[in-house]
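To illustrate this point, we now present one chain and its tokenised fold:
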Amino acid sequence: MGAALVAACGGPTGADTAQVSGAPSLKGLEKEYLALPPPPANRKVVLDSLVLLRALPKVRGMNDIYEPAFTQTLNRAYAGEITATEAARLIDEKATPLIKKG
């Protein structure tokens, strides 16, 4: 069961399903992602920014940090309540002290 779940989530089927709410997790799915309706308004910008992504810090309690600092803030940006720049600033303000403490 575990191997099947990993294969489904990490393979084309899982990646294709996941891209509905985020960027594609596998190369080769860009065309389908770009064809999806908004939001975001400019899906090409999302694809172009993937090369800038960095792994999250490996600190104790990262799961406790992730929801309030990352998920809630990114959801606000995705909903258009705040800009991506504002989201990045807020994430930095929320996460940095928690990461340093952890």
